[in-house]
Amino acid sequence: MSTYSQKRAQPRLRALMVGFAGHQGKEYLPVVREYADIVGGVDVAPAAGALADDWGFPRFTGIGEALKRVDFDVAMVTVPHSEHFPLCRELLLHGKHIVKEKPFAVTEEEARQLIELAEGADRSVYTLLQRNFNPVFQFARKNLARIGDPYWFSYDYHFNLAQPTSGWRASREQALGGVLLDMGYHLIDVLSGMFPEPSRVNAAFVHHYQEMRDRHLEDLVSLMCSYPSPTLSGSLRISRHNHEKSERLCVLGTGGALNVEPQGATLHSTGGRLLERFTRPGPKTDAVRAMIAHYLGHLDDRDVREDHFRRQLTTVRVIDGIYRERSRERNELADRYS
Ligand SMILES: NC(=O)c1ccc[n+]([C@@H]2O[C@H](COP(=O)([O-])OP(=O)(O)OC[C@H]3O[C@@H](n4cnc5c(N)ncnc54)[C@H](O)[C@@H]3O)[C@@H](O)[C@H]2O)c1
């Protein structure tokens, strides 16, 4: 018997798209279809019915209806932040794998609950964070040791939106956080992959628009991170209304410097001699395809799952810790002036 015929053909995965009519959901439809059969979609948006017809799958307006009407292996979840936890909980209780947008969870408590449910059901919950699949960030992680012991990093990530934040991101109840949770999740996760968990983070929350200040949704956040080792510190600035869109991570080490932007990275010796320049070999979309293929291909891989849970728990804990501290300070101030 040939090796080919000895292999059992794996049936194609069946995917349910939850939030498919939104920005991220629409971006993922063609990629998911390469690796799975899309057997249905859940979205409450008025345009979702016509979109589902175009793609040839049934549209449901609630997860309960989808769970009753179609059989699927994995749900792709791309919904506003307030919807993540209740949807994921329901899906795990029904024994479904989940591949989802960030954040993995908003609070450490919810992250722990999801992990417990997933482990109990022997199911995965993977968070889509494209920097982990961008060859430039992979180069950075692999080559970090070449700059000696890192003692400082500086990470900036800015959008140049000309208007106040709108849609669900402008609603406290739906967004559950400002730019730190939304854009900052990516950066805190990148740092979780390179450095230990910070022992202390000092944060400044800044607002461009009064309505965002009123809703306690920061437009800009500036963070100073301290680590268990006194020889490492770092800072981040993340904002929505800068004059230009940019992302840059700079790490200084005892033997050189590493600079990373999504399109390319450089390694320099102390003093500035260029040691290596790395340029992203393909378009941005390659990372998205690689990420979705990887997670759909590892739904039953417990090692990948456990690593993912550990990393996401750290990322969630750091962000949750910053917001808790912020709300403690706010309450203290309110008490002092009441
Ligand atoms: N990785 C990235 O770079 C990136 C970029 C943008 C957004 N995101 C993340 O993607 C998620 C969605 O953001 P978006 O910008 O696509 O938002 P969006 O508003 O464009 O899309 C959300 C969709 O979810 C639908 N929806 C709302 N509640 C639902 C529910 N209970 N069940 C099913 N569908 C529901 C809405 O109708 C909408 O179509 C968020 O978690 C966000 O943080 C990630």
UniProtKB/TrEMBL annotation:
- The source's superkingdom equals Bacteria
Pfam families according to UniProt: GFO_IDH_MocA, GFO_IDH_MocA_C3
Record-linked Gene3D superfamilies: Dihydrodipicolinate Reductase, domain 2, NAD(P)-binding Rossmann-like Domain
What molecular function does GO assign, one term? oxidoreductase activity
Keyword list, A-Z: Oxidoreductase
Q: Which residues form the GFO/IDH/MocA-like oxidoreductase domain?
A: 146-258
Do you know which InterPro entries this protein is assigned to? Gfo/Idh/MocA-like_OxRdtase_N, Gfo/Idh/MocA_oxidoreduct, GFO_IDH_MocA-like_dom, NAD(P)-bd_dom_sf
Q: Where is the Gfo/Idh/MocA-like oxidoreductase N-terminal domain?
A: 14-125
What PANTHER family does its record include? CONSERVED EXPRESSED OXIDOREDUCTASE (EUROFUNG) (PTHR43708), CONSERVED EXPRESSED OXIDOREDUCTASE (EUROFUNG)-RELATED (PTHR43708:SF5)
* Family, as annotated: Belongs to the Gfo/Idh/MocA family.
> What name does the UniProt record give this protein?
Oxido-reductase
Name its species: Streptomyces alboniger
Query: What is the primary gene name for this protein?
Result: pur10
